[in-house]
Model the fold of this input.
Amino acid sequence: DTSFPCCIKLAIGNNKVAFFRQGSMKFNVAVAIAAAALAAAPADAFARPFGVSSTRTRNGLQMSSTTTDEVVVIPTTPIEGMRPGTSGLRKKVEVWQEKHYVENFIQSLIDTAVDSNGGKMLDTIVVAGDGRYYNDEAIQTISNICAANGIANIWIPQGGIMSTPAVSAVIRRRTESGGGEDGQGIAQGGIVLTASHNPGGPGEDFGIKYNEGLGQPADEKFTETLYKKTLEISSYKTVADSPDIDLNAPVGTKYQLTPTSAVTIIDPFQNYLDALKSCFDFDQLRKFGSSGFSILFDGMHGAGGKFAQRVLVEELGLPESSLMRCNPLPDFGKCHPDPNLTYASELVKKMGLTSDGSADLSIDASTLPMLGAANDGDGDRNLIAGAGFFVTPSDSMALICDNYEAIPQFAASGLNGVARSMPSSAALDVVAEARNIPCFVTPTGWKFFGNLMSSKESFDGKDYTPFICGEESFGTGSDHVREKDGLWAVLAWMSILSKANEGVNEGEALVGVKEIVTKHWAKYGRHFYCRYDYEGVDSDAANQVMDIIRDNLVNGDASSVESGDEDIKFVDAVEFSYTDPVDGSETSKQGLILNFELGPSADPARVVFRLSGTGSAGATIRMYLEQFEKDTTKHGISAPVALKDLADEALRLVQMEKTTGREAPTVIT
Done:
């Protein structure tokens, strides 16, 4: 331990360094050994994770990758058509594979994020996708652009796959150590590679969306600024000749892409699992799962499947047979990963249902799983069904609201707010009014819910959390993240079923989904609801349908509209607009609403027409049908059957077949 001076000389290639230091013999010997190891190490040893080698050829010479890869500026020109829709930019994958396409969009996105960050470059960002075709290649490109722009920490989940709600959880929770409570997250945003419920694979869809610093989808101000930048871009930055990142490397592996920017492979599950455990009693759900409860969960070969495996099987102890199609595939097994009655047909059949959601009377419901559920491509949507009984998304949301005491997340303090998208049924409104809970009706798009959930933390406004929200398009969620969350909805229903079966003795029949829903209808009335989708309609024809509604019904004289059915009276039509109660922003042209009165009792009904912003080609006309029925003797009718006359009258008024040439919708859900 005697202190004495020591001279250490290093020679690495042609670089020679000498330095003197004063220290103990033990310490100086340790430093000398370390210096010798450094001198003997390959030049790229510290530019890549231990155990991973990387070489490449430049001008015929094999070179090792180092932290001094060159940041280059690539000239480019604007590419038309990059305006994001309600959930990011979606195009056919071949469009994204065109020269400069991903690069232009990501550079414009980063520049917009910097503007939103007060002109400062982001420090930490998440890059993840739903595993669809082109996911891995796009992650490599995006990582290099992020690094070249100076983003210090780029977090990528192991495998490159993460559900959209899990990305939101990482942004809200993950600290440098990996764990963290809600609100402690240090990531300033997330680039999510998904086209959600759209098909994947060659010739199919790919998409990119951005989540901001609270885990919420980018708002309209952000996406409009991004779009303007795509029209002005003249260059983008990237890292030249960077080696590929091994997306399957162990959690914690680092890749130093530049001297100041590194990729870290992170655990895809930890933060999301922590978020779910903050909402639900896993011990109680595990106990319920072993006492006669059964579930069949369809992952539709999307990102949510691996999370269902982790939560339902590994955490709650349910058998592997509870899962179907839970292995993510780039083309989703050539299925359309949209959890509805049409595209989740295999699950629908296994739950004893027909294609219109009614019970298949040839099947004994007692032999079926107690709960059926499905996720979409990126794991944020959900389908809920009981044995021989389909639950509409609007009813599901209303049921969760009315049974919030069964969910630990809400049991202690109750709900401070609920919200639905305008096209969703008013089933939620009726419950909220009865239970004295503030209820909001917003345009379609989860970003509008994000503002309400973040009213206090973003704007120092009224705190609406705890909060439940949802859309008719099979999206349900709460304030545990800032995205809709399919698996959260499944656990909410498990909690409701568990509560409903308290006191049921062993050997007695369990209370099922059907009993819970029909009891709810008897109390509040039933809102019959379904949606007609006309997909891939010529854009000009689709816009012409909307113009006919505006000209003839919204701006026309309602009293002059002739009825094609004496039991269906047209009342009026309005175009929905929205003023955000949190930030005062205004959103217009969010759907056309046709109001009707039915029969002698003049029961209310409505039909909503809206052009969807989630497709990648052509236009999708969505027609939403809703009518209220208090008479319990009529509650057992299938929704498409109950709404058929209303649908026919609405289609006649808007001249759908004449204008589009479509005799029938592509999908009815």
In short: DSSP finds 21 helices and 30 strands in the chain. Confidence is low (pLDDT under 50) at residues 9-22, 43-68.
